[in-house]
């Protein structure tokens, strides 16, 4: 198990699959792309719009998975780089306007992270991993 | 008396590099201002500064002396930043007045026998109350009204007195009468002149004032003198005989018949004094000895007057400090305008109030029904020369700076009340730049505008700090605020008062929207009332909890579910509310069960101990008289609470913007000083308001006597027992900017107290901004404490019934959140570390031992230390 800070942001692939999520909200499963393969982590039904959950990845890392109001699903690394605590899944999701970019505000010191790229909106030099996500 | 050099303190004569020494005699308001002026000019770093002060306490705000009786403590009245004298190396000798000056040797000797050699001596000895030489004036029960010690003595003596008489119907006399009235005495005022406040107001103003004062139950006797104080067998005051032969029964007498300059020290050492007293000074405040200055009320200024007001005293302090620094400055006389609130009546006079100038004319408005009297004195050229305002002095802030110029409106329009043919109120834009807005600190309109345009101040607090305007008597703050806002607007600064990027409304406006439209869904509030560009989005971390809190506060009244973890409400809560626990730095949570009033049985204490032991939690006693259990994993929270709820505990809401605790002392039941059962009241209050969601956390305390062991005046609402009931204080705060709570109402019975707190809390919840504590709210809202008192005590807005009903709904709708959570498997489902691995604890939450307990193992987190993003408020 690794507990080191993951400093390499994931490539900015299109992260969410809102259409798929909207189509099959009840039964759909959330999958995260890891090391070239898709790994199921939870059901969409286990998510609350506007909030996140933490999932344990096969290699011991943790991801924070979020659902927005329109059914978009996102995943980023769960560790807050400002404090080291694994808590980003417990932050509040925000998105200003229907076309806005979704972000999460850390529950500890309130820095915000873009949910599609993992970059910190309050400090250019900081980012967390962003994972590609699909629902099926 | 020969000075005794051998008793001198640190000073050593003959040291070649000895710094020059400045000795200040007197540490009143003017003395303190002089010290600040020295510090501002860097003199305190270059010179030794010694202060001899007769009173046992350092300088305090004598102008606000009477506010002691409305709840301000001597500490509240203290002047200058805490630690001022120490920081500038000023040697302050309290309770040790100067006894003699040897001008030849340039030494001052104190009562305690300390002798100081001076290079410069500054006399700021102030004045003493004049007591007419009548028989019986020294009897027990006779007082003067000048120092905090005088007030403490009056307060003490009033406990056994029934009737008080004040000799003197001037400014201080009326303040003293108000104080005696407030202490519950039947009160008389005896004034030798034919009207009250003869110096400041004219006959018409005096008559208006008299009617209003009499309406308040103070008996006024004018045109009569005091012939004799009648002394009873015990040597105490029994009454007084007036010059017209009538006799008044009174067992307490306050002399307030004017003041005289305190110039004895100067007389004794041969300095020139005026015929009618006062140490003669020149325009630079120098006495007949160039090494000696005199400032303030003890000085006879170059214009032949002794000024008994603080503003001219401050000007003299600045002048003397300039002279000592070798700079040009002069004091040649000052404006004696005053505005005050006496017994709740506004009284103001400015300029040539009595119309003494040649050819001047009066414009008078008088309405005896409402006790309003206004007179303006206008010169033959149309210039405003002065005026008297009684009962409604709102215009003072504008009229005083206009004095000496031709006003932009006809004088009759300036005195008419709004709505009676008066045009739109005269704004500060009508004033010239050189008009003095703050007369205490001599700050002009131009300087204030400059603070905004050149120093980039963006609000009144900043302008106050930058210019010192509005920090004296405060009478100019209204005009100052208007001026600053006008200037900001002119500069194109748009002050966006919106809650966040999603809402252009303030929290108070959103509260009204939610209440009136009975909206129970955040999404609906956002989509229908959000900023255009934010609609259809997910909101943000600022508005979601704020609106969640508004909906929770109003839940029972608008038909919403008050439980914060269900449905859409779940997504609005900060993590602390979401997990009903407080997130700590390593991702673990702390747990605080409610301990109402801080009272707990041994059995319950044992349960807390057992739970902490069994779950390996770190325990600490909190400042709110309860016990915090740290280090719980999110998966452990339901198990911990199952044990606590079983033992009869409820959520303590330490995680919410809600009522936290009502602290108490043991009160009458155990304490030999207690006068009420403070523990019972604290428990009642805590159980009544538990779970109440508010703009910020709420803290309270109940003390069983005036010794105030529960520290109630540091709380949002604090209750202090009196022998007659309870005093209610509001707006107190600890934290980074401590504030003592203000007295809202006194001697309430249980029912009155609770009704008033109901109204106060609901009015706060309704009108405060997000994360605005009661202290800042009270200072921000227009009208401040007086307005809040009008609304919640006098029901000036007619909303008290509704406020009470909202609180009754809250009380009836309360449920313990933790008990409700444990009953529902759906609600419990969120308490897992990993949604895909229930039962697996978070491996990063680990602990290491410290002092026989645990602490977070931060090495596991190994995160770099990065700065905190600035976002007002905290979870504390």
UniProtKB/TrEMBL annotation, chain A:
Domain Rieske-like [2Fe-2S]: 38-135
Tagged with keyword Oxidoreductase: yes
Pfam families in the cross-refs: Rieske_2
Family matches, as Gene3D superfamilies: Rieske [2Fe-2S] iron-sulphur domain
Region entry Disordered, spans: 1-20
InterPro entries per UniProt: NirD, Rieske-like_NirD, Rieske_2Fe-2S_sf
Keywords, alphabetical: Nitrate assimilation, Oxidoreductase
PROSITE patterns hit by this protein: NIRD
Classification via NCBIfam families: nirD_assim_sml
Record's protein name: Nitrite reductase small subunit NirD
Organism from which the protein derives: Streptomyces lycii
TrEMBL record, chain B:
Cofactor field: [2Fe-2S] cluster; FAD; [4Fe-4S] cluster; siroheme
GO molecular function, one term: nitrite reductase (NADH) activity
InterPro entries for the chain: BFD-like_2Fe2S-bd_dom, BFD-like_2Fe2S-bd_dom_sf, FAD/NAD-bd_sf, FAD/NAD-binding_dom, FAD/NAD-linked_Rdtase_dimer_sf, NasD-like, NiRdtase/SiRdtase_haem-b_fer, Nit/Sulf_reduc_fer-like_dom_sf
Biological or metabolic pathway of the protein: Nitrogen metabolism; nitrate reduction (assimilation)
Record domain Nitrite/sulphite reductase 4Fe-4S: where: 656-795
UniProt catalytic activity: hydrogen sulfide + 6 oxidized [2Fe-2S]-[ferredoxin] + 3 H2O = sulfite + 6 reduced [2Fe-2S]-[ferredoxin] + 7 H(+)
CDD domains in the record: NirB_Fer2_BFD-like_1, NirB_Fer2_BFD-like_2
Domain of life: Bacteria
Sequence similarity: Belongs to the nitrite and sulfite reductase 4Fe-4S domain family.
Protein name: assimilatory sulfite reductase (ferredoxin)
Domain called NADH-rubredoxin oxidoreductase C-terminal: residue spans: 337-395
Entry-linked Pfam families: Fer2_BFD, NIR_SIR, NIR_SIR_ferr, Pyr_redox_2, Rubredoxin_C
Domain BFD-like [2Fe-2S]-binding per the UniProt entry, residue ranges: 436-484
Swiss-Prot/TrEMBL keywords: 2Fe-2S, 4Fe-4S, FAD, Flavoprotein, Heme, Iron, Iron-sulfur, Metal-binding, Nitrate assimilation, Oxidoreductase, Thioether bond
Record has Ribosomal protein as a keyword: no
Domain Nitrite/Sulfite reductase ferredoxin-like: 584-646
Function: Catalyzes the reduction of sulfite to sulfide, a step in the biosynthesis of sulfur-containing amino acids and cofactors.
Domain called FAD/NAD(P)-binding: residue spans: 21-318
Enzyme category, top tier: oxidoreductase
EC number: 1.8.7.1
């Amino acid at each position: 198990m690794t507990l080191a800070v993951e400093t390499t942001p994931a490539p900015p692939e299109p992260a969410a699959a809102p259409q798929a999520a909207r189509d099959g909200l009840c039964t759909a499963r959330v999958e995260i792309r890891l090391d070239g393969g898709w790994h199921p982590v939870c059901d969409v039904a286990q998510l609350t719009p506007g909030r996140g959950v933490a999932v344990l990845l096969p290699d011991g890392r943790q991801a924070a998975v979020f659902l927005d109001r329109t059914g978009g699903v996102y995943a980023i690394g769960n560790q807050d780089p400002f404090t080291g605590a694994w808590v980003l899944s417990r932050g509040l999701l925000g998105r200003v306007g229907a076309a806005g970019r979704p972000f999460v505000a850390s529950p500890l010191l309130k820095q915000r992270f873009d949910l599609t790229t993992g970059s910190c909106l309050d400090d250019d030099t900081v980012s967390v991993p962003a994972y590609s996500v699909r629902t099926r | 008396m020969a000075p005794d050099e051998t008793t001198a303190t640190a000073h050593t004569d003959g040291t070649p590099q000895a710094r020059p020494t400045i000795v200040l005699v007197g540490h009143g308001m003017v003395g303190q201002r002089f010290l600040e002026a020295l510090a501002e000019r860097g003199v305190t770093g270059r010179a030794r500064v010694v202060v001899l002060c007769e009173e046992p306490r350092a300088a305090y705000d004598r102008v606000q002396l009477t506010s002691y009786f409305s709840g301000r403590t001597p500490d509240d009245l203290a002047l200058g930043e805490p630690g001022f004298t120490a920081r500038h190396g000023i040697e302050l000798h309290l309770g040790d007045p100067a006894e003699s000056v040897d001008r030849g040797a340039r030494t001052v000797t104190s009562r305690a026998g300390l002798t100081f050699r001076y290079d410069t001596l500054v006399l700021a000895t102030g004045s003493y109350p004049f007591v007419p030489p009548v028989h019986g004036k020294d009897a027990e029960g006779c007082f003067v009204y000048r120092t905090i010690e005088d007030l403490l003595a009056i307060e003490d003596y009033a406990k056994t007195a029934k009737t008080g008489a004040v000799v003197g119907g001037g400014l201080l006399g009326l303040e003293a009468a108000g104080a005696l009235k407030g202490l519950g005495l039947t009160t008389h005022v005896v004034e030798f002149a034919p009207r009250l406040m003869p110096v400041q107001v004219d006959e018409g103003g005096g008559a208006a004032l008299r009617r209003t004062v009499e309406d308040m139950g103070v008996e006024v006797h004018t045109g009569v003198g005091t012939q004799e104080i009648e002394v009873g067998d015990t040597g105490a005051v029994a009454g007084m005989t007036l010059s017209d032969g009538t006799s008044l029964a009174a067992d307490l007498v306050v002399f307030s018949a004017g003041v005289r300059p305190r110039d004895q020290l100067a007389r004794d050492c041969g300095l020139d004094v005026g015929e009618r007293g006062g140490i003669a000074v020149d325009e630079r405040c120098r006495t007949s000895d160039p090494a000696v200055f005199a400032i303030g009320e003890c000085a006879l200024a170059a214009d032949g007057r002794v000024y008994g007001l603080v503003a001219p005293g401050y000007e003299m302090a600045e002048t003397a400090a300039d002279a000592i620094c070798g700079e040009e400055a002069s004091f040649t006389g000052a404006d004696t305008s005053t505005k005050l609130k006496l017994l709740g009546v506004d009284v103001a006079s400015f300029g040539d109030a009595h119309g003494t100038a040649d050819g001047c004319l009066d414009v008078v408005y008088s309405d005896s029904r409402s006790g309003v009297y206004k007179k303006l004195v206008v010169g033959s050229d149309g210039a405003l020369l002065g005026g008297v305002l009684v009962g409604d002095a709102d215009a003072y802030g504008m009229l005083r700076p206009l004095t000496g110029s031709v006003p932009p409106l006809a004088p009759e329009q300036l005195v008419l009340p709004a709505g009676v043919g008066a045009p739109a109120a005269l704004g500060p834009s009508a004033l010239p730049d050189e008009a003095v807005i703050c007369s205490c600190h001599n700050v002009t309109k131009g300087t204030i505008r400059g603070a905004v345009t050149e120093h980039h101040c963006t609000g009144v607090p900043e302008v106050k700090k930058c210019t010192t305007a509005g920090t004296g008597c405060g009478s100019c703050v209204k005009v100052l605020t208007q001026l600053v806002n006008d200037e900001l607007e002119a500069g194109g600064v748009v002050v966006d008062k919106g809650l966040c990027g999603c809402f252009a409304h303030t929290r108070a406006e959103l509260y009204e929207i939610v209440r009136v439209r009975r909206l129970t869904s955040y999404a609906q509030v956002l989509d229908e009332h959000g900023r255009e560009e934010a609609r259809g989005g997910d909101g943000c971390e600022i508005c979601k909890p704020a609106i969640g809190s508004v909906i929770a506060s109003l839940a029972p009244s608008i038909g919403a579910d008050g439980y914060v973890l269900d449905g859409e409400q779940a997504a609005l809560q900060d993590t602390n509310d979401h997990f009903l626990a407080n997130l700590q730095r390593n991702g673990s949570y702390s747990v605080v069960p409610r301990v109402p009033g801080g009272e707990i049985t041994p059995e319950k204490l044992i349960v807390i101990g057992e739970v902490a032991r069994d779950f390996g939690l770190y325990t600490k006693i909190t400042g709110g008289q309860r016990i915090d259990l740290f280090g719980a994993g999110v998966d452990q929270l339901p198990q911990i609470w199952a044990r606590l709820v079983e033992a009869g505990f409820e959520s303590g809401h330490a995680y919410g913007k809600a009522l936290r605790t009502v602290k108490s002392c043991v009160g009458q039941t155990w304490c030999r000083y207690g006068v009420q059962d403070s523990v019972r009241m604290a428990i009642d209050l805590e159980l009544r308001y538990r779970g109440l969601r508010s703009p910020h956390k709420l803290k309270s305390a109940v003390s069983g006597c005036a010794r105030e062991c529960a520290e109630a005046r540091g709380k949002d609402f604090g209750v202090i027992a009196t022998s007659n009931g309870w005093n209610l204080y509001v707006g107190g705060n600890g934290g980074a900017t401590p504030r003592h709570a203000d007295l809202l109402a006194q001697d309430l019975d249980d029912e009155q107290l609770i009704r008033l707190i109901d109204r106060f809390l609901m009015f706060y919840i309704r009108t405060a901004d997000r994360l605005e504590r009661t202290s800042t709210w009270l200072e921000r809202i227009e009208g401040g404490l007086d307005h809040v008192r009008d609304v919640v005590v006098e029901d000036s807005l007619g909303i008290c019934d509704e406020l009470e009903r909202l609180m009754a709904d809250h009380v009836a709708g309360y449920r313990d959140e933790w008990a409700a959570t444990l009953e529902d498997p759906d609600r419990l489902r969120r308490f897992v570390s990993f949604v895909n691995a229930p039962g697996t604890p978070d491996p990063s939450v680990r602990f290491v031992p410290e002092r026989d307990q645990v602490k977070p193992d931060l090495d596991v987190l190994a995160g770099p230390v990065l700065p905190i993003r600035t976002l007002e408020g905290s979870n504390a």
